[in-house]
Amino acid sequence: MADYTFFFNPMSRAQIARWALHEAGADYEPVLVPWDDKPQALLDANPIGKVPTLVHHHLGHRHVVTEAAAICHYLAVQQAPELTPKAEESADYYRYLFFAAGPVEQAVTAKSMGWDVPQDKQAMPGFGTYDRTVDTLETMLVGRDYVCGERFTMADVYVASQVSWGLEFGTLPDREAFRTYSERSTSRTACREAQAIDHKLIEEMQNG
To answer: How far is CA 181 from the centre of its chain?
Structure first.
């Protein structure tokens, strides 16, 4: 049995988790999850039925990890400590990771769904406004190569995935700081390997 069981669909945020698995050099068994026929093993592990879901088989125990950002950090801790933050990098690492998983994700989703936040209720959602969130993300990325400065960490797997998809699908504006950060991060060998797997699967699924 592989160390990890990876429930995924290539047309989902599971692409982030696969990149993380490859960055960590993890031994994993992929389980493709059709949208209309979710296996019981997935539902047993994660009753909401979301992918990615990762099951870590470790010392006779099953450890279930869900949510792409959590999977990224978990894999770094378990498999690739060199991709975790040093003490002096921790503030940026956790801030950027959870800013991307929280306010950025919420702001992009709200805009994509056509949900406008009334001006008198901007304090209620976790992002305030889309424009303010995007401007903040840009400010955070200007003047640095990666989340933790010059060194790539697992936080970049998640943040760069969000930025790359935002540029590809037009949910983030095409700004130089986003474009250069995305290109730098996604040019890594592990990312290219993971993308090749998912892109091939997507092509097969679309061609029937």
So the answer is: 15
